[in-house]
């Protein structure tokens, strides 16, 4: 992912949001990761190292090699990791294209990809490169979006219109794929990975979990609005649609019977 293919931008506010997002979703994303026996892990699309820090905390014997194509994010990532005295010598970062990894065959014994394949033009090529640099028997975990699953009640037509423009822009202009989560099984199978498992993880939040619903709606509202300047500038949505969306999301957050639904996909396989 390059600086030109990320809708949310690379502002300090967005970089801070990525850290908070990683921690908020950690219970789902990092649940039972198969890296206990790994020693050299490749993290593709490490960004600001929000996931890197969590991986190092969960697996203290791990050395993580993070790769990303954004110099801006890597600068923040290095500063963040260098401040963690307990993580000294447990990581290294490289500014590279994930479709052309500069590592020898069988360099790693595990790979972690999270919210990255949605941003690349050719996910199969990235996964092929990852397979090349993994040793036989190594696990890979891919966590990806499936943006067609988004639902909110009360009915919010401007929010849904904005969301479709958000996805269309990523698909048509940025050469990404906001629906790649549903395709992970096919991608991994075609590339020769073994023991492929996919799990659909769903946030279904209603009156049974009002606190979680409020927290997730706040998180989701921030995510949606972070892409608004880029969409308006590109002419994909009008400013009035953004304002109407904000009003709808505020109404949903205040509604005592609100419902939020979103699913993503996590795939696990072995080389």
Describe this structure in words.
The model has no long low-confidence stretch (mean pLDDT 93). Strands 1, 2, 3, 4, 5, 6, 7 and 8 form an eight-stranded mixed β-sheet that branches. Helix 7 packs antiparallel against helix 9. The protein is built from nine helices and eight strands. The protein is α/β, with parallel strands linked by helices. The protein starts with 11 loop residues before the first helix and ends with a strand. The relative contact order is 0.15.
List the helices and strands and how they pair.
Blueprint: H1 12-29, E1 40-44, H2 50-58, E2 63-68, H3 71-82, E3 91-95, E4 110-114, H4 123-133, E5 139-145, E6 151-153, H5 157-173, H6 184-190, E7 194-205, H7 210-226, H8 228-233, H9 239-254, E8 259-270
Parallel strand pairs: 1-2, 1-4, 2-3, 4-5
Antiparallel strand pairs: 5-8, 6-8, 7-8
Helix pairs in contact: 5-9, 7-9
Describe, in short, the structure shown.
Helix 7 runs antiparallel to helix 9. Helices cover 42% and strands 20% of the residues. It has 9 helices and 8 strands.
User: Rough shape?
Assistant: globular
DSSP E strands, number? 8
Output the radius of gyration.
Answer: 19 Å
Beta-strand content: 15-25%
């Amino acid at each position: 992912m390059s600086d030109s293919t990320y809708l949310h931008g690379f502002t300090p506010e967005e970089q801070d949001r990525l850290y908070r997002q990683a921690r908020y979703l950690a219970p789902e994303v990092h649940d039972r990761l198969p890296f206990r026996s790994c020693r050299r892990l490749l993290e593709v699309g490490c960004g600001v190292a929000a996931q890197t820090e969590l991986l190092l905390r969960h697996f203290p014997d791990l050395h993580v090699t993070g790769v990303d194509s954004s110099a801006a994010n890597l600068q923040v990532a290095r500063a963040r990791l260098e401040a963690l005295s307990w993580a000294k010598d447990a990581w290294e970062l490289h500014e590279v294209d994930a479709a052309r990894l500069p590592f020898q065959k069988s360099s790693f014994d595990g790979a972690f990809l999270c919210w990255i394949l949605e941003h690349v033009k050719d996910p199969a090529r990235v996964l092929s490169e990852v397979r090349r640099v993994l040793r036989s028997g190594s696990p890979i975990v891919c966590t990806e979006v499936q943006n067609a699953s988004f639902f909110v009640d009360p009915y919010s037509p401007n929010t849904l219109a904005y969301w479709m423009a958000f996805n269309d822009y990523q698909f048509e202009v940025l050469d990404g794929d906001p629906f790649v989560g549903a395709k992970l099984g096919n991608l991994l199978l075609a590339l020769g990975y073994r023991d492929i498992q996919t799990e659909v993880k769903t946030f279904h939040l209603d009156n049974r979990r009002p606190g979680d619903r409020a927290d997730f709606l706040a998180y989701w509202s921030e995510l949606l609005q972070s892409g608004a300047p880029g969409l308006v500038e590109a002419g994909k949505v009008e400013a009035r649609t953004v304002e109407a969306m904000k009003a709808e999301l505020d109404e949903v957050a205040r509604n005592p019977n609100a419902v939020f639904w979103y699913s993503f996909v996590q795939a696990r396989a072995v080389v």
